[in-house]
Design brief:
Largest sheet: 7 strands, mixed, barrel
CATH class: Mainly Beta
CATH architecture: Beta Barrel
Number of helices: 3
Shape: globular
Radius of gyration: 15 Å
CATH superfamily: FomD-like
Number of domains: 1
Strand content: 35-45%
Order of helices and strands: EEEEEEEEEEEHHH
Helix content: 10-25%
CATH topology: FomD barrel-like fold
Strand order of the largest sheet: 1-2-3-6-7-8-10
Length: 176
């Protein structure tokens, strides 16, 4: 698999199980790009929704994408701490167009004190029926939620002490 080069600017695209484009983040600077993971940074970028709406993010964010785990993590840097929004979805793929993944509705919001909340379970159940998710998908995603919660409780990966701060400093360097 190709992977984006450090310092390059990429688009991030999420899709739904039926192949429909769900959401596009216009520009993310690649801070680390390997075949295993991509770490990116952005600040006040445009996001395009599939229904035509367009909005701008409110704060700087560090994004973590894995080629092996069924989730990605966005660390949003706010005045009162780092909030994490974790999307349950396929491991990423990358082509010259964009970094891409399939979003499977379930999300985990993690607060600065490392408490968390599982979101959008109703949306998952609805889309599971509408899009005829394969039976094994629910087990894969529940395992991913368990793995994600373990990472949060152990402060592993993007939840580790200093991770967001380190990559945010790199982002500021590349952004100039």
């Amino acid at each position: 698999m190709d992977f984006p080069k450090t310092g390059s600017n990429i688009e991030v695209q999420s899709y739904k199980h039926n192949g429909q484009l769900h959401r596009v983040w216009e520009e993310t600077i690649v801070l680390k790009g390997t075949s295993h993971e991509v770490i990116g940074g952005n600040d006040r970028i445009f996001v395009h929704e599939s229904d035509g709406r367009k909005w701008r993010t409110r704060e700087p964010a560090i994004c973590y994408f894995s080629a092996h785990h069924w989730f990605n993590v966005i660390g949003m840097i706010r005045d009162d701490g780092v909030y994490y929004y974790c999307n349950l979805g396929t491991p990423f793929t990358y082509d010259e167009e964009a970094l891409k993944y399939i979003d499977y509705d379930l999300d985990v919001k993690v607060f600065p004190d490392m408490t968390y909340r599982l979101l959008d379970q109703d949306e998952f159940k609805l889309h599971e029926k509408e899009m005829n998710y394969p039976k094994e998908l629910e087990g894969i995603l529940h395992h991913a939620v368990d793995e994600l919660v373990t990472w949060v409780s152990q402060q592993k990966g993007p939840f580790s002490q200093g991770f967001i701060e380190y990559w945010y400093e790199r982002f500021l360097h590349y952004r100039g």
